Amino acid sequence: MTGAPTRTLADLRISPIGLGGNVFGWTADETTSFQVLDAYLDGGGNLVDTADGYSYWAPGNSGGESETVIGAWLASRPVRERVVLATKVSTKPDRPGLSADNIRRALEESLSRLRTDVIDIYYAHFDDESTPLEETVDAFEEARLAGRIRHVGLSNYTPERIRQWFAIADAHGCARPVVLQPHYNLLHRGDVEGPGARGQVAAELGMGLMPYFALAAGFLTGKYRRDEPISGERAGMVADYQRPECYDVVETVARVAADHGVEPAAVALAWLRDRPGVTAPLASARDLNQLRPITEALTLEISDEETRALTRVSDAARS
């Protein structure tokens, strides 16, 4: 295994780039998923992130497919102790929301699919305002005290609701969440950076950040060109980025990448990896070619001058 740096989150040691599992059982079949997971681990990575809802949106899927693939991989290799395993609850169509009963059922099903006794980070995937937050916080603490999860994470929560969760946890004597998973990348920064934004609240409360959409749904890989029509599965997800200033960002990323002999995605990930408060950006790979820049970004060092250049063009394009 290639040596790679790690970062501390609570009592966990985590690689600086995490592997997103949304593609497993969707655009990556089991065989290819195993190859990607093996190569990521061999390349020095150790954070595998998924959700019980992945990938209910794909024809013929109902959710749980990604966890099932990861569980089969864990069961077939002696690697569980080397992996920081994260999953989430609230979006699986037959396990929606964050009621205590749903969390209990969903967690047992996730553990079964993942073929593990404990989940290292268990996220509330999306806020459920129809359930009293006290009920949700207490249910996560119940799971932690039972040894079914090690740490609590939040994803897609507003600053106000993050603060409310912490206030309830403190009042009830529950463990505080250790990590926030926000949408954050070179083209999407506004609701993470700045006064009162998610990143500031996370820093104030001692949470790490594990950004998703770190590559802007593939836009930051450089595969889309200025003035060329965009098609494919993610065309709608990158529609908002088809602006001249966003292509300026991509072209700057590509120039830095060329200077380092790496792929553009590696530079975009390295920039985000080194933003204040970030523990590990998440990126997914449906094959070994897509994995390469993820493993490159584990150790890629970009200069202060390059970082400033990337930030300048990002400032002009940020949303």
From TrEMBL:
SUPFAM superfamilies: NAD(P)-linked oxidoreductase (SSF51430). It comes from the Bacteria. Gene3D superfamilies: NADP-dependent oxidoreductase domain. Residues 16-313 form the NADP-dependent oxidoreductase domain. This is Aldo/keto reductase.
